What does this fold into?
Amino acid sequence: MIEEKIEINKIPAETEYYDVMGGSHRWEVKVHDHGSVALVDSMPRLAPVGQTADFAICQAARVSYGAGTKKVSEDKGLIRYLYRHQHTSPFEMVEFKFHCVMPVFIARQWIRHRTANVNEYSARYSVMPDKFYHPSAEDVRKQSVSNRQGGEEQLEAKTAQEFLDYLDKVEENYKTYNNLLEKGLSRELGRIGLPVSIYTEWYWKIDLHNLFHFLRLRMDSHSQKEIRDYANTIFALIKPIVPVACEAFMDYAFESIKLTRLEIEAIRSGKPINTTNKRETEEWEQKKQLLGLDKTSQA
It folds into this structure.
């Protein structure tokens, strides 16, 4: 046997380690009425006492195995430097596995991020649950004029109620779906009449670098509120485990402002941005407000 020729040297740890999830089986947060996000595992699961899972980022960056460990303050400076200069591979040494329950319409947006490992509940093999996302009247939004994808202001009450009544009728069709399955209809065909408001679930594993990319887009105010609720929940779950990396993410990505060459030239010259693109001009106006630049000085 080949295995008999391989000698494994089991090296004891030079320092004391602890479980970054505190020995818990899962950290779970409820989202909306029927949804949830649960952190079920983390890599590394063990971190040196006195440190967080952030240590794995520094370990990879230094290409070491913990020998001559730097001070925590030096580790923080290194992590912030790595993120600031987009040295992303060390962040890929940290991974998280989540169990997520969400409506299908959110899952279809979510799966657009193709840098994770996913295994989803199958409606071919199993009966879909009698659970639907049903927003409150306050969450029924009017179509945005400036954003084709989204909705912003609350829809007037009468039309909002019409929409909620429509959802009630759609959800009532679940009884027909279930009855047809009991009469022998295949599950793979029965599922095609179900609405995208029905809930699905999956296990989702992703490294920290790609997770930050997901969060930067899905925590943004321009993202659909429903998936933004899930993204904010994920960030809250990982922050205690990699607090230094999360701080760097907020400082250098999520709460930062990226300037284009044209925008930098507009600041330097004091003139309007040199473009005829309406959307680019609107984005520049938004950035000027965030930067506190005087509009009159740009005229």
